[in-house]
Every structure is written in C-alpha cells, then in structure tokens.
From TrEMBL:
GO terms for cellular component: plasma membrane. PANTHER family: CONSERVED PROTEIN. InterPro entries: DinB/YfiT-like, Maleyloyr_isom, MDMPI_metal-binding. It comes from the Bacteria. This is TIGR03083 family protein. The lineage of its organism: Bacteria, Bacillati, Actinomycetota, Actinomycetes, Pseudonocardiales. Pfam families: MDMPI_N. It comes from Lentzea xinjiangensis.
Length: 253
C-alpha cells in the first residue's frame, strides 16, 4: 500500500505546499515551466491550488463518483501577472482545506470513487504526489535545488507503478504497441519493481524478475523518469535502452 499512511499523506499535502510557498518569495511567476512548457509558473500554481480545492469540495459534498464538472484545475490559461504574495496564502489555504477534508472522513468511505478505489484513499495519494511533483516543477522553473524525503519518493513511485501505469495502459490506445516487447526493472534502495510487457497486458510486480532493461537510481530519480521530468538523467541503465526510452515516452502523466 506504499510507505505512507492516510494521515501522513494528508500531512504531506500541507508540508509540501508549505515548502513550495516558502520558495516563491520574490519569484518571477511569468517564467515558463520546462516540464509543462504551455504553462507559466503562475498557471502551474493555479492548477495545483484548484486541484486541491476541487478534491476538497468533492469530499465535502460526498459525491459518490469523481466529478470533474466543477474542477478548474485545467482552466488556467487566463492567469497572468499575479505575485507570490497573492498566491502563497491562497495555496496554503487550499492545501489545509484538502487535508482537513480528508481527515474528516474514513479512508474507505465511498466518496469520489476513482478507478474503483474509495476516493479518500485514491485522492489522498494522488494529491500528495501531485503536490510533490509540481513542487519539483516549480523549483526546476526557478533553477532552485529540490529535495524530498525518501519515504515520500517511495510512496510516489508506488502509486505510479500500482495505479497510474495501469490507468495509462487502460486509457491510451497507443500503449498497446508496447505489449509483447519485453520487461523493465526499476531499482531504488528502498524499492524494486518489475514491469513485464511480454504478455497481452502489463504486469507489475514488486522485486526483481527477468528483465530486458534495468534502470537504477534513487526513488525520486525513478519518479522523475517515469513522470518524464528528467528522462534517464541520473540513472544507471543496463540492457535495452531503446525499450526503456520507448516505454517512458508513452508513459508521461
């Protein structure tokens, strides 16, 4: 189930947002985000804050299924000219609203269900890791160093392997071309994963199994690779590098 508990994920949303806000003082929010070049940093921050508020509202409303009709997270093109002093308190408030909403319900309450998973369980993970990855995006845009706890990085990688990878294969027809190609092994000090693509559907397993290509690095270096934030930079790659490149290109989330 990953490294973090439900309450720890709720807390991560707040602490990661706080770290993000603390790095924004005096920043130029008009800079483009390298990992999301269609967005400025201003727009990325609005995206994250709206995502927090949207999930908090779904939890408060106790909607039975995930409802994107009132999400503003991807309607951010009009935002420009805002300052960190304006957005910082708004981001902080939204993270607290989401954390409080999650902690007000049970992890397995049938609210905002997504991919068959109770919404509190799914969205606590998704929003914790969304916040971590977008904090990286912001630090990258500003040229600032980034660090994250290994336990959080491991939890982020766990979600990607067990939830996002199957979701991507289930919703993107183009990924079918990867099936029947081979197996990939991802190794971090705290976690090892094998992604077997030799069959008619992807199979993900903990630990090392027979592989055609292996990528080794820290848990967050692997996160950056599978999220296509940094390619294979910082990873030790052995075996069929072409298979790894093809896989990662299809997996961007």
């Amino acid at each position: 189930m990953g490294s973090l508990s439900y309450s720890e994920r709720a807390a991560t949303i707040v602490t990661e947002t706080s770290l993000l806000v603390s790095a924004l003082h005096g920043a130029d929010l008009s800079v483009r985000v390298p990992s999301a070049p269609d967005w400025t940093l201003n727009q990325l921050l609005r995206h994250l804050g709206h995502a927090h508020r949207w999930v908090a509202e779904m939890i408060h409303r106790r909607v039975p299924e995930t409802d994107r009709s009132f999400s503003k997270a991807h309607s951010v093109s009009e935002y420009a000219g805002e300052t960190a002093e304006e957005l910082g308190p708004w981001l902080t408030e939204g993270a607290a609203l989401l954390s409080d909403a999650l902690l007000s319900v049970d992890v397995d309450d049938p609210i905002a269900v997504m991919v068959g998973m109770p919404g509190p369980r799914f969205w606590s993970r998704r929003m914790a890791h969304e916040t971590v990855v977008h904090r990286f995006d912001a630090m990258d845009a500003l040229g600032l160093p980034f660090e994250v706890d290994e336990e959080i990085a491991d939890d982020t990688l766990h979600e990607w392997m067990t939830t996002l990878l199957p979701f991507i294969f289930g919703t993107r027809p183009g990924t079918a071309g990867l099936l029947g190609t081979g197996a990939l092994y991802f190794e971090a000090p705290s976690a090892q994963w094998t992604v077997d693509l030799t069959g008619s559907a992807p199979r993900v397993a903990r630990g090392e199994e027979k592989w055609d290509v292996a990528a080794r690095g820290s848990a967050f270096d692997l996160v950056l690779a599978v999220y296509q934030r940094r390619g294979t930079e910082g990873l030790e790659v052995r075996g069929d590098a072409g298979l790894l490149a093809e896989f990662l290109a299809a997996m961007r989330f």
